[in-house]
From TrEMBL:
<protein>
    <submittedName>
        <fullName>Cytochrome P450, family 20, subfamily A</fullName>
    </submittedName>
</protein>
<dbReference type="InterPro" id="IPR050121">
    <property type="entry name" value="Cytochrome_P450_monoxygenase"/>
</dbReference>
<dbReference type="InterPro" id="IPR001128">
    <property type="entry name" value="Cyt_P450"/>
</dbReference>
<comment type="similarity">
    <text>Belongs to the cytochrome P450 family.</text>
</comment>
<dbReference type="InterPro" id="IPR036396">
    <property type="entry name" value="Cyt_P450_sf"/>
</dbReference>
<dbReference type="Pfam" id="PF00067">
    <property type="entry name" value="p450"/>
</dbReference>
<dbReference type="InterPro" id="IPR002401">
    <property type="entry name" value="Cyt_P450_E_grp-I"/>
</dbReference>
Amino acid sequence: MPQQLTDIPGPPLPSEGHHLAAIAAAGGMHTFQLDLHRRYGDLARFRLPHSTVVSVADPVLLEATVRINERPADLFRFLDPFFESGNLQVLPEPEYVPWRRVVLPALGDHAKHAAMFPRMAAAVEQLADRWAASGEPVALQHELNNLALRMVCSYALGDAFDSAKLAARIVDAFQFLLDHFLHEARGVEPPTPPGERRRRVEQAQWTLREAVTEVIARREAGHGRADSADLVGALVAAGWPVGRIRDTVLGTMLGGHHTSGVATSWALHLVSLHPDVERRLHAELDAVLDGRTRPEHGDLRRLRYLEMTLNESMRLYPPGPYAARESTTDIVVGDHLVPAGTTILHPIWAVHTNPRVWPEPDRFDPERFAPPAVAARHRLAFLPFGIGPRHCSGAGLAMTQTKLMLAVLAHRFRFRLVPGHVVTPVERFVLCAEDDIRMVVTPR
Ligand code: HEM
């Protein structure tokens, strides 16, 4: 007979009836979860205003939650204003499944990644050239997030994004909106003066919607670049309404913006702190690139140590530090019955640093991702892209982009932190550094 939800260990309930103050005091949900599992073990319980939360930090226990296909609306409400035809993060399963069936092949098709690769590689090289010419220290996360956003836009919007003027307008509008909503979500006053806010939000939304509407019109007229994802074309062909198509492009920009850039920046940071890893990475890049400045798409699979290094970086600093689900039926997790309607957290950072799964979890060691070590571990021990039917739909593209950025930049430069600069991980929708990662960049 399984034990009840209330038997799952967790912190005592404060008088307010929830743990929001404790989460804020811990520095955010990501650090609260680390502490929660340190104190109460791999299965722990706490309370948010609208639901009880069960957090599962053990790969074997996670299996019971893998198939859940709903997210809790309350946790993602802050994204509601981003979308015009319903928050894509929390679409109910019957609406979500057919939509995802169209989106996944458009984003995940290797042939399209290969076709788009030269364009993405040229963008990374342009950034590297600019750094080399300037000689100034760089704010890695700012620079790489911007680059990743441009790559995703080019992939999703195709030739509409080739116009530099339009591209700049799209990027500016998106960054303004995201920044605005993230400030609001954290309860922090946005930087735009209150009188101007409404007008600027509407203007940014209009700019983004107009750009996508133009792409839809071009696809309907049979135009478009062959190397783009044709995400828009696929959604048009599947008969999705215009609002949902525009939201899908925005949702893809949202998913692809901070994540790949942040992942690359953490990898460059960790490599810079570990000269032995740096030497091995440089040796692999020198051998595979063999005098070239950038890889071909087909070279990526030969960059094995680079992939191990990237995975170990995403273990230590997962760009998405947790994911959330809402159970629609009663499930049994370990010895406990978790009733329908409970919020289930996948605390990615806590799983990745669980000492029962990862010995000496704080040590950076790419060898953890050598094939025999991977084969010996549970498949859910490493989950940077989440798990189950709502896992990251851009995972394949993300790995392509991130490996490319890391390959070009690590091959060309040696990175060292600006003396005195302190790197503090914080959660701002993704796990990033509070004051960026400021690096002195020296050509090799
Ligand atoms: C290293 C880079 C990336 C990481 C670590 C990452 C991680 C994640 C995680 C943890 C989630 C939540 C999954 C869940 O709930 O289980 C997610 C969702 C998502 N990601 Fe990524 N992501 C990355 C890059 C990208 C890129 C490049 C794109 C777009 C091309 C993208 C698009 C999305 C979308 C659209 C979702 C929502 C999926 C859905 O609800 O259908 N991500 N990502």
